[in-house]
Design brief:
This protein is α+β, with helices and mostly antiparallel strands. The protein contains 9 helices and 4 strands; from the N terminus they run ααβαβαβαβαααα. Helix 2 runs antiparallel to helix 6, helix 2 packs across helix 8 and helix 2 crosses helix 9. The two termini are 34 Å apart.
Length: 292
């Protein structure tokens, strides 16, 4: 207990002696955590957006005008047996006309004396089947069925989503790695200044036979304290931003939040890791330099 009290007091004494460096380190971690939270929030939002778009993806099977009731029921049963089909919806010629008039108005079809729109079957698929490759395979299976005139699904649209989703994931991962590495580098350099200012104390402890773990411990505690303050400031700023985003003064139609309650624990762990790991790197480099 005495040892822990001594190490903690040494840690606070060291931070107090290097106020500028300590403030810089705390600011670095605070900014890093805010940026990490923003990138993760954008990543989660982009994933939700892509999923919402994919949920609307469906196959539309246009039927021949001379299809009978028996042939229609038989076709429905065969489509239901195809792998990946979640549910189907039949749209009659009359329903198709109503949908068209609702979206485009009656004027476009008034010149015709008949309903040119075909009946169709809309097929909703399970999420794992909503890819261009699997949709094309399902399309081939349905094309072989009788009384099927045409099949459509947003193939180019899906290709764009698939390419962009991979790109977004890559950008977010690279950004998170760069921010984390930059934070560790900045924190370690800042803590190194603190260590350099206490060079004589470290040399004295080494002469007295103090173990490396004993020498290193105060700086690890310093890193923990720096990380903790960085976490507190970052969470405070993020919560204030969340309050602003959810206020009536800001039109947040996309429902974006910079931090969720489930993610707080990760922010805390990341902040403490940046502070402690940055300190450990600095101390090890310093001690290695001193022994060479």
């Amino acid at each position: 207990m005495i040892k822990l009290d001594y190490l903690t007091k040494e840690a606070f004494r060291g931070l107090n002696k290097a106020k500028l460096s300590t403030t810089t380190a705390i600011f670095t971690i605070t900014l890093s955590l805010i940026l990490i939270s923003i990138f993760i929030s954008l990543s989660l939002y982009s994933n939700r957006l892509i999923k919402a778009i994919k949920d609307k993806v469906e196959i539309e099977v246009f039927l021949a005008d001379d299809i009978s009731s028996e042939e229609l029921n038989d076709l429905k049963e065969k489509i239901r047996t195809i792998g990946g089909v979640k549910n189907i919806t039949y749209v009659s010629k009359e329903d198709a006309l109503k949908i068209f008039e609702k979206e485009f108005g009656k004027e476009m079809l008034e010149i015709l004396e008949y309903n040119p729109l075909p009946a169709s079957i809309k097929i909703n698929l399970y999420d794992e089947y909503k890819s261009t490759d699997r949709l094309n395979k399902i399309k081939q299976q349905i094309s072989a069925l009788p009384k099927v005139d045409d099949i459509k699904f947003p193939e180019k649209y899906l290709e764009i989503i698939e390419k962009n989703s991979s790109l977004i994931l890559t950008i977010n991962l690279v950004s998170l790695v760069l921010i984390s590495l930059s934070s560790i580098f900045l924190v370690s350099n800042t803590v190194r200044l603190v260590i350099s200012s206490r060079r004589k104390l470290i040399e004295l402890l080494k002469l007295l036979g103090a173990k490396t773990s004993f020498i290193v411990s105060p700086f690890v505690i310093e890193g923990f304290i720096i990380g903790l303050f960085g976490v507190i400031f970052a969470l405070t700023i993020l919560f204030l931003f969340n309050i602003y985003l959810s206020s009536p003064f800001f039109k947040n139609e996309l429902k974006i939040t910079l931090i969720s309650y489930d993610f707080i624990i990760y922010i805390v762990l990341i902040g403490l890791f940046l502070g402690v790991f940055g300190s450990v790197i600095s101390v090890k480099r310093f001690l290695k330099k001193e022994t060479t």
